Amino acid sequence: MRQETAQEKAQHAAQETALTEAQQARIDRWLAQYPPDPAGRRSAVIPALHVLQDDNGGTLERHHIAALADYLGMPRAAVFEVATFYSMFHLDTACGRHKVNICTNISCWLNGADGLVAYAEEKLGVRLGETTTDGRITLVREEECLAGCVGAPMMVVDGHYHTHLTRERIDEILDGLD
Amino acid sequence: MSQEKVTIEIDGRTIGARAGEPLIEAADRAGIYIPRFCYHKHLSVVASCRMCLVEVERAPKPLPACATQVADGMKVATRSAGALDAQRGVMEFLLINHPLDCPICDQGGECELQDQALGYGRGVSRFVEGKRAVADEDLGPLVATEMTRCIHCTRCVRFLEEIAGDQELGGMHRGEQLRISTYTGEPLRSELSSNIIDLCPVGALTNKPFRFRARAWELLSFPMVSVHDGVGSHLSVHTYQGRIQRVVPRECSTINETWIADRDRYAIEGLAAPDRLREPLVKRYGEWHTAGWEEALSAAVAGVRRVLEGHGAAGIGALLAPHATLEELYLGGRVVRALGSANVDHRLREGDVSDQEQAPPFPYLGGTIAELEQADAVLLIGSYPRHEQPLIQHRLRKAARAGAQIMALGLRRFAWNFELAEEHAVAPQHLVSELAAVAQALGERKQRKLPQALRGLPGGSVSEPARAMAKRLLAGERAVVLLGNQALSHPQAATLRALAALIGEWSGGRFGVLAAAANSAGGWLAGALPHREVAGRPSAEQGLAADAMVRAQLPCYLLHDVEPEHDLWDPAAADAALRQAEHVVAVSSFASERLREVADVLLPLGAFGETAGTYVNTEGRWQSVRGVAQSYAEARPGWRIWCALAQLLELEGFAYPDIAAVHAEIAGACRDVQPSSRYPAELRSSGATSADGGSSSAPGRASGQGSGVTLALAGAVPIYAGDALVRRSEPLQQSPLAARLEAVVAPETAQQLGISHAETDEATVRVRVQAAAAEALELPLVVSSTIPAGTVWIPAGLAERAQLGPPFGTVTIEAL
Q1: Which of B55, B466, B486, B676 is most solvent-facing, going by the fewest CB within 10 Å?
Q2: Chain A residues within 8 Å of chain B (Cβ atoms)
Q3: pTM of the prediction?
Q4: What is the pLDDT of residues B673-686, one digit of tens each?
Q5: Helix and strand element counts for chain B (H, E)
């Protein structure tokens, strides 16, 4: 009996840590675009993390990192470095249905981004990096330049750019999210 | 890097340099110090700390000296107003988030940040805002963290990636949040991990066991040599009030560069183990009594005399640890010979020494350690240097990174930290025939025939891996063939030596033996052998080798720093022999339960650092050290103990005034000894045993009785189990590399045992292991495809498996 459970546990662990065939195929398409050496395989780490994050409801878990590191032949710590460096990856945190990134880099900051962040935080009742209790919106951690300076202040909601923000525009956009 | 010589000027001094070398290296060579944190000569250049900013003529702004390549005519100012200003600016930034906890920081007094803040910083901080704090991480029992002190130089990250071979740490998050971490919180697994303590320029990573023991300026530093493998890494031992407090590496570019293994650093934690022998003990009527030295020595001598009278000199045998000093090994051997016996040996973990008559003066690496990194094709036979000689592994890894084809022919697959060109694991009874196949494949290409004594391939077929290995060896211009610890303790080690030497010769390269212990080579020179005296002079009388001594069940054994349940090739036979013996004298630093059971007299021996002596490493280099620590309680240096025994036994020629006199005698005798790694195959007298080891029962088949499966047994001594001191080091024993006693089998074998089991690292099933007539042993079972089918891998050198006998053999296994 004890042996059975242990076996199941091992199988379960193996399933959990493995990449699915479909995921491997999608990662392989990215790998094909880089040189076939170890350095080239490393180059695919960002798109590959996106593949795993998209399949997992917008967040990454540690076992994804381990499986991807093994697949790409990278040290695990190196994949953790990438996954923790970019604000577009959400490691070890539950995310809401919508991700809102308010830029606070120099152009937006000069145009009052700090006040907008404070407004959004108050409106949603969460701080940067947190998710509303109803699981609707994640206010992504402090965001650096998102390359929309021409329309500062700006934010990105689920990959879509919204420029020339005001409190009213923020109300409008956030209230429109389901 | 080009070899082109150029001339540059630093601070007005004209110096020569190689075009393209880092400016900081040229400055270091000229003795011009440029401050630095992230730069290290053995690590890649990242120029992340900016501390080494200097002014270069015609450059628009200060340049980092570590990442600036030297060019002809370059004019550099390291102390100009502009350079000093830049350095001061960097220093101020570095100190913004650094806590001012120097009074309670272990690094205080030997801290690069402290020194450079004094030398290059400003006296007053202008920063009044709050400093950041970073959560600590538990990196295991060896390295303590205080990550708030980290300045992100990334030396530790680069070391683990570039030298240790597995990037276990990384720079997580970014900007203000950047922190050095494993992220997962797992302990470091590298056998070289603790070098990051020395690399860390601040107090972020410190020596965990040493924490708060002493301040850097209270310590006295003495040069020392490591005694835990045949490399002989250079160490500095730091003492406080006569006690060893810590060990740090001492630079030696030709042996250990600036690194040491964790084993070299933390073994000292075993020095004050609870079972350390404090004073001489004498057993009377089965009870131990504390005795003075005089009384204990008299008891030891009286017993020896009784045996001499009752059984003659041949009844006396001495087993001397291969990590004892050269002087101890020499005196031990001479005492036994002066008594009329030749039963003396230091090859405690070797089972086949049948080639000893033809053997070279000592087991020799065949060249220097540093040369290994120049090799372009390497064949490792029964060797896992990563755990056996970690700094040999470092050289091999450097070779591999430079493109060398490194191949392993062994008894299982291991977790190498570089890409192997070939890895072939075979059951122990097939190792000889596989190696013969490599030789045969070489012979076919070179039109040479294997000597008669080494033939015996079934059908003369050469396996694919053997052919590939031969091909790669021949393709190499600087081929190296190395025999490791597992091959040396193989039951057909002599045949392996002959074949490996032949392969080395035929591949046009060099052949070498990787010495397992600090004086595996020295023991040969010192004459701690049954067939040779000092400097390889033939022994007048032929004695018994270590294993034969054990099997002969002599009436009297003299042990020097030996724990029979761990250190002998066949611990089961050793136990039986010592139990039946009339008189056992153990010169030992520790008194384990088992040793107390079998010994009659225990003489406390000065341990590492407490005694002067000489070690001869695997490349034949003699290294003498002084005793630097106070003797522990009543413990005395081994050479004095042997001299005292000799004098009480009224033997001539043991009145040495000091250890230098003993050393001079050995060194004088060995003056003309030429190292060699020739093991002439043609001269082998005993004739090779049949290629398949002649084991009667074919492993891998279900045996008659019960549901047991007969398997070939193989095993190696784990990295932290090699000697008494290492075994008693708590931090090492708590680390992830500490030995786990388990039986490991291939998935196919597991199926034979009736266990359909996914491959897993964790043992979930237990098995009963039975060797010969011994009592069965219950062990956890691990299934791993690193093990050849039909083999069970059980670590050797562990007391708990002593009843299984030698590391190799045949066992029956049954699932529970």
Answers
A1: B676
A2: 2-3, 6-7, 10-11, 14, 62, 75-78, 80-81, 84-85
A3: 0.94
A4: 999 999 977 644 44
A5: 24, 33
